[in-house]
Amino acid sequence: MEAYCLKCRERREMKDPKAITMKNGKPATEGTCPKCGTKMFKIGKA
Description:
By secondary structure, the chain is mostly beta strands. It has strands spanning 2-5, 10-13, 15-21, 27-32, 39-43. The protein has one domain (2-43). Helices cover 0% and strands 57% of the residues. The chain starts with a strand and ends with a strand.
């Protein structure tokens, strides 16, 4: 899944994506940037 990395300021393919549920009950996907290792986050169903 592709997400925006805030550190690199570029859209990249997420490494180790996992589906999570936010506090308000909405779905999201969390992973890491393959280049810099920063946590990436994408709201919405995967």
